[in-house]
Every structure is written in C-alpha cells, then in structure tokens.
Design brief:
The protein has eleven helices and five strands. With 420 residues, it is an alpha+beta fold. It has a five-stranded mixed sheet with strand order 1-2-3-5-4, covered by helices on one side.
C-alpha cells in the first residue's frame, strides 16, 4: 500500500469519525434489511406482521450512540413481543440481535448504568424465552440448542467488548488532551524563549552601541574644542579616533544582529574577561586614563560569568563616558572566596588624585552629560540577579562614582576547591 493511499484512507477515516451517523444508519438499516430478507426467503413465507416485528428489533440501532439505554430497551421489548406473539412458527430469535444493543450500551454508557441495563435486558429476555418454552434451563457446558446459558455467554462477551472499547476511547481522549496541552505548553515555552532571547540581544545591543556611541560623542566634543586652536595633526587624530570607534560599533552591532539570522555563517564568540583590553582601548581613545587590575586566572571563571562580567564593565565605562567624560577610571576584577567581584570607579578618589596615582587633570573641560535611557543600570542588575549576586551603584565614599558587582562562582570553579 502506497503512502498516498494510506494518507487517503486516514483522511477518510477522520472525516467518517467526525460524522458517525452513516455508520449507525448502515448498521441498523443493513441488519434490518438482511434479517427481513432472510425471513422472507423461508418457505412458506411468513406474514407481513411477523416480518415487520422481526425487523423492528434492529431499527433502534440507528440511535445507539445518542440514547443507548433506550435502544437496548426498545430492542428487548421487540424481542419479548416477538417471543410472546410468535408470528413466525418455528422461528427462535435467540440473543444474536440483542448483542448489538448490549455492546452499544457498554460502549456509550458509564459502568453502573451500562451494567444495570444489560442485566435487566438479560433477565427479561431469558425469562421470556423460558416462559414461552423456546429454550431450556441452563445446562453446564451446553450452548446449543438455545439455552439460558447461551444468553448469558453472548451478553457477557458483548458487554465486555463494549466496555473495553469504551475504556480505550477514554484513554485515547485523555492522551489527545494531554498532547494538546503539551503542544500548547511547548508553544508557550517557545514564545517565552523568543522573548527572553530578544531581551538578551536587546541588552547586548544596547551595551555595545551605547558604549561606542558615547565614546564617539565624547571624542567629537573634544575634537570640536581643539580644532579651533590646535595643530591640524591633532584634529586629524581626533577624527580618526571617531572613525575607529564608529567602525568598532558597527562590527559589534553586526555580530549581535547576526544572532538573529538563520544561517550557517560563522558567528564571533561571546566576549570574555580576556577581551577587556578592547574596552580599555576604546575608553582611552575617548580620553580616559584607565587602570585595570585583573586578579586570578580568567580561565577558571565559567564562560557565562565572564560574559556578564564583560558586559557589566562595558556598561559601567559607557556611563563614565556619558556622564563624566574623559575621567580617570579604575577597573578591578578579582576572585574572592567563591565569588567574582567587578568594580569600576571613576573620578578623583584620594586628595584630588586620580585612581591611577597620577595627578588628575584640572584643565579638562567640564563634560556635557549625554542623555541616557536608564536601561544600562537595569541591564547590570538583571545580569547580576541571573547569577544570584549583588550590585551596588552610586557615589564612592571618597568621591567619584562606583559600580560594584559580585557574581557567585560554582564550587568547582573556585581555585583550591573541588566540587563535593
């Protein structure tokens, strides 16, 4: 059987299952026509009343799904009437037609009602058959001729088949419901994952673009101030730095936007603590004097922690360029016990001297603050909260501004410790 034929049969079965009345009509009508035809073929042919009463036993099967108890009741009543009236001499109906009603009752009715209805129908049919002398009392090991044991056996098989089919249908419906819920949960999880990934990419894009654009703004203002009375070479250097910073911003932005493309193109690796020199170079190109202190092996820190530490430093330097301009800045990254501490401080912190230990420049122009959206500090807090760490931002006790973040490290990543 080909795949197309199998698919066609499956589609036809699905459409047929959605409209069960044709099957009920075929069962009830087909049995009725067949029974009446076989009865008319007898010699001599019975009268119309007998044929009609015989056919009425299977007509109710058309409603077997909608009202199975009424169907079995009507079939049992027609059986009793045929037995009592005896319109066709020598014709013994037996339980062979009633089993369709018993099956329908067990299939489409709950257990208590189905079992009770089948027992009442069996009692009525057996009592009528015995009283009319059509069958003998129960005989062990005998089904022929028609006996009460015959009725019990046929009723029992029909009821067990119907009840088993009902249980299978209930389990199939439960599985379909669970499958639908699972699909809905998967779609919801997929949408949430997309939203979370978009938020992460938006934070990264904000960090990259805001950092470099802030550097461009600071360099542009500084170049504007020196172009008037500085040698031409200094002006060219400032413009060159602006171009270099803009190129860096474009490269970083393309790298992040590349994450949104569905292709096999190579994507640059995530930044780490080993790439802090890029941030330092960009800040120094903007006029800052940066001192960096990296204590402990960077390779011992998990990659995810390193990415967050890099972004925290990047955002802190962006805020320095936005609000303090070309200020003296300290970047300290150190491992303490089971945590990684990131500290970024800018401004004069000891007796008017910069964090580099050199005299702070007193002849620098007062920086013009660049408007911010506030997303930077929010991004820092979210990155720290993702690792269960702590963050403190605000004025430094000795002057300037400080960003101090602590990211816990897994036990296996702490130098000198092994996982338990």
């Amino acid at each position: 059987m080909t795949t197309q034929t199998t698919a066609a049969l499956r589609d036809a079965r699905r459409r047929f299952a959605g409209r069960p009345w044709p099957a009920d009509l075929a069962l009830g009508g087909g049995l009725t026509v067949f029974d009446m035809a076989t009865l008319l073929a007898r010699d001599p042919a019975p009268g119309p009343a007998g044929v009609l009463l015989w056919g009425l036993q299977t007509v109710p099967l058309f409603w077997r799904r909608r009202c199975p108890r009424a169907v079995l009741g009507a079939m049992t009543a027609a059986f009793v009437a045929f037995e009592v009236l005896d319109p066709v001499p020598g014709k013994t109906p037996g339980p062979y037609l009633l089993i369709f009603g018993v099956y329908a009752l067990a299939r489409y009715t709950a257990l208590p009602a189905g079992l009770t209805g089948a027992a009442l129908s069996l009692l009525a049919a057996v009592a009528t058959d015995l009283l009319c002398g059509r069958s003998a009392p129960p005989q062990p090991g005998s089904l022929e001729p028609v006996t009460a044991t015959t009725f019990l056996a046929f009723y029992g098989v029909a009821w067990l088949l119907g009840h088993g089919r009902r249980r299978l249908g209930i389990q199939a419906a439960r599985l379909r419901d669970l499958n639908a819920r699972l699909r809905a949960e998967q779609e919801l999880n997929a949408r949430q994952a997309v939203v979370a990934e978009r938020a992460r990419i938006a934070r990264d894009l904000h960090d990259v673009v805001a950092h470099h654009v802030s550097a461009i703004a600071v360099q542009a203002r500084a170049t504007e101030e020196v172009l008037g009375d500085a040698p031409r070479g200094d002006g060219r250097k400032g413009v060159a730095r602006i171009a270099e910073t803009a190129d860096t911003a474009l490269v970083e932005m393309r790298r992040i936007l590349g994450l949104l493309t569905a292709g096999d193109e190579a994507i640059a690796p995530e930044p780490s603590l080993a790439h802090l020199d890029r941030l330092i170079a960009a800040a120094e190109a903007a006029g800052c004097r940066v001192t960096a202190r990296l204590d402990g092996p960077a390779g011992a820190v998990p990659p995810a922690v390193q990415v967050s530490a890099y972004r925290i430093v990047q955002e802190a330097l962006t805020n320095v360029l936005k609000h303090a301009g070309p200020a003296d800045t300290l970047i300290a990254v150190r491992q303490e016990c089971a945590a990684l501490t990131i500290e970024v401080v800018n401004g004069p912190v000891v007796d008017g001297r910069g964090v580099t230990g050199k005299p702070a420049s007193g002849d620098r122009p007062v920086p013009v603050p660049v408007p911010g959206s506030g997303r930077g500090l929010i991004g820092i807090r979210e990155r720290v909260a993702a690792f269960g760490g702590t963050v403190r931002t605000g004025p430094h006790p000795r002057g300037g501004w400080q960003v101090l973040a602590t990211l816990p490290l897994p036990l296996g990543e702490v130098p000198g410790k092994a996982p338990s």
